[in-house]
Amino acid sequence: MIEFLKPIEVNEQELGFDAIRGVPIRRHFFGEPHTMERYEHAFYIGRWWSNWQNYENWQLAGGKDATQRATDIWKQALKEYQEPSIDPRHPGRHSTPTSRSGARTNRKRRALRDYAN
Predict the structure, then answer these.
(1) Sign of dihedral through CA atoms 96, 99, 101, 105?
(2) 3-class SS letters over the chain
(3) Could you report the per-residue pLDDT of 27-59, keeping only the tens digit for each?
(4) In whole angstroms, how far apart are CA 32 and each of 35, 73, 91, 111?
């Protein structure tokens, strides 16, 4: 979500006009230094939703699109959800301050581990 709030830089370097001029017609930009400098950080969507497998491996793995993968992730998270214990002396507070964030972190780790396999 934070990526949506970052201001967009508009300048000569970010627009990459030199890279555009430097690539011959019917060629790609992947070999250009401008592209390579930005490639790893250009995508705000994490590996949970995107799939970087080649097409053949993606098909062998079931060919799930982003919506199907997201559905699998939320269903798994719902299945694994454990309601945090509430301290009866302090309604509205969790018995341990990290119980929710720890569970969320563990779910993310499991989802990432499962996705990588």
Answers:
(1) positive
(2) CHHHHCCCCCCHHHHCHHHHHHCCCCCCCCCCHHHHHHHCCCCCCCCCCCCCCCHHHHHHCCCCCHHHHHHHHHHHHHHHCCCCCECCCCCCCECCCCHHHHHHHHHHHHHHHHHHC
(3) 888 778 888 888 776 655 555 666 778 889 989
(4) 5, 36, 58, 34
Query: Which residues lie across from 94 on neighbouring strands?
Result: 86
Q: Check: CB of residue 103 under 8 Å from CB of residue 82.
A: yes
Q: Give every residue of the chain whose pLDDT is below 50, as ranges.
A: 99
Token pair, residue 42, equals 């250009």
Contacts of residue 69, defined as CB under 8 A and 6 or more positions apart, other chains included, come to: 48, 49, 51, 115
* Tokens found for residue 36: 């390579």
Q: HSE (CB half, 13 Å, CA atoms) of 36?
A: 4
Question: Within 10 Å of residue 111's Cβ, how many Cβ atoms?
Answer: 20
CA gap 42, 9 in Å, rounded:
13
